């Protein structure tokens, strides 16, 4: 699939997890993908993924892109990312706001007054605010070509009909991202820019796989991972949205990856169409 040929995309937090999956799938669909994050350099044996490692994967799959090391809690570094994309490409068609620092501490279900208040800084400063500031600098570049340009902004989040997630800080921050996308969708509607919060299910991120002592090649041997989905699944959802000429009709409305799989007809890497995640 090269239906995104000629498009320029930016995926923040692209070295691992959902960001990596999205970057790879956008590149496979033909987009030139910029990926940002703090993990630079080629990964060594046994180390976590890095930006350059993901770029190497992109190129092995026939795609192309570039890496920009960026700490998105530093506004000047975020601004520099957009300035570089503007200088090199003169445009930005797809923005995936995926940067997230909220998993620095274990996310438990204790009452919030028993939780460390550092959750606020990790989830809001390195999550919600980091995504807001990326929008702040990127939207003027995305608006440059005027109305009807068919641009797309994605916020990766979690949403299940506003059901409570069980962790006060996590619930508050993820719903803040949903509301951010809604408000922004109204402000850029006249420019033809769709803004969509996308909610995956239980993904087999590197952290999840490590917690089970397995990897992506052997996860099916673990009974507890049978209902999970790969990070490519959300990547395919984002690529499908970016290629949809009618995507503006969905702007501002949260979308679950499993529902998008049914709508667009894609499957996960193992051939399953994993249902949308629901809080029981």
TrEMBL record:
Could you tell me the superkingdom of the organism this chain comes from?
Bacteria
Please name the Pfam families in this protein's record.
adh_short (PF00106)
List the source organism: Paenibacillus silagei
Q: Which InterPro entries match?
A: NAD(P)-bd_dom_sf, SDR_fam
Name-wise, this protein is NAD(P)-dependent dehydrogenase (Short-subunit alcohol dehydrogenase family)
